[in-house]
Amino acid sequence: MMDKLVKSEVYRFLFENSNDALLLTNPNGHVYRANPAACEMFQRSEEEICTLGRSGLVDLSDPRLASALEERATKGRVRAELNFIRKDSSVFPTECASAIFQDEFGETWTVIILRDMTSIKAAEEASRRAQEESNYFAMYDYLTGTLNRRAFINKLHEELSRSRREADPFSILLLDIDYFKRINDTMSHACGDEVLKSVASLLGEKLRPYDTLGRYGGDEFIILLPMTTKQTAGEIGERLRSHIECSRMECEHVPISVTISVGLACCDNAPDEDVDALIMRADKNLYFAKQKRNTVFGQ
């Protein structure tokens, strides 16, 4: 029968030399012919492909299969992305085009054209992961995993707008690690990095789910405390200070004593105070806290 359908030397040449996999089937899924590209794609001989039929080649669990078959039955043709299965049981994505036609004797056939999309999908996935990674590092500090300075400032602007709109106070804590330079100088910068990561983790343990932690720069961290008064912010700052002081840290098996100093600033909807002024106030209070070290200061 195929000899009658592909009797032209042109059609025979196209069938045998196409880079795309070609299957000649009937609408019920019986496969009559498979070209060399199909055999290579499925890792099977033409006889094996014909014996298996469509149901032995396509991934029957693919949720897109039913709608593709329905569209082909309704419109006479369909183009869809479907998963198929190789001889080694590996599932691979394809771009599938299929059409129903009748031969000169009135018999109904279907042709299925398959293009392996594995490399294209892999490239798309790699591009997606690269974009996600780029988006992540545009917002997060690579070392501590906290928000970076730019992302935190954007968050702070949003909170200032919300605070004024809803007439809620909020507070920020600006803190740094006491004698951090000494750790870098007497031990190593690698130890300094480990301390930064440990401090970020410890701070995160004691923050509320809706608080935001960021790395402001160097050994400075900044924390946004939404809907928080100055008194409550002071209590949170003290809780964080105590938690860092009481936590055990070590680098290269050498114990390290770490403390933090904290400057506090509360925004209670002063109409002329912007984000920069709020941070400057917290920074000024951090300066006074560092005169004593291991303390929380806020005016």
Short description:
By secondary structure, this protein is α+β, with helices and mostly antiparallel strands. The protein contains 11 helices and 12 strands. The chain has helices at residues 2-5, 9-17, 36-42, 46-52, 65-75, 118-139, 149-166, 180-186, 189-206, 230-246, 275-292, and strands at 21-25, 31-34, 77-85, 91-102, 108-116, 170-177, 212-217, 220-225, 249-251, 254-256, 260-267, 296-297.
Features of the shown structure:
five-stranded antiparallel sheet, 12 strands, 46% helix, single chain, alpha+beta, 299 residues
Describe the structure.
- The chain has 299 residues and is of the alpha+beta class.
- It has helices at residues 2-5, 9-17, 36-42, 46-52, 65-75, 118-139, 149-166, 180-186, 189-206, 230-246, 275-292, and strands at residues 21-25, 31-34, 77-85, 91-102, 108-116, 170-177, 212-217, 220-225, 249-251, 254-256, 260-267, 296-297.
- The strands form three sheets. It has a five-stranded antiparallel beta sheet. The protein has a five-stranded mixed beta sheet with strand order 7-8-6-11-12, sandwiched between helices.
- α8 runs antiparallel to α9 (189-206) and α9 (189-206) crosses α10.
Structural class: alpha+beta
Provide the spatial order of strands within the biggest beta sheet: 2-1-5-4-3
The helix/strand order is HHEEHHHEEEHHEHHEEHEEEHE
Extract low-pLDDT stretches.
Answer: none
In total, how many beta strands?
Answer: 12
Distance between the termini: 93 Å
- The radius of gyration computed from the alpha-carbon positions, rounded to a whole number of angstroms, is 33 Å
The percentage of residues in β strands lies in 25-35%
Q: Quick one: biggest sheet?
A: 5 strands, antiparallel
Tally of separate helices: 11
Helix content: 40-55%
The rough form would be described as: elongated
How confident is the prediction overall: mean pLDDT? 91
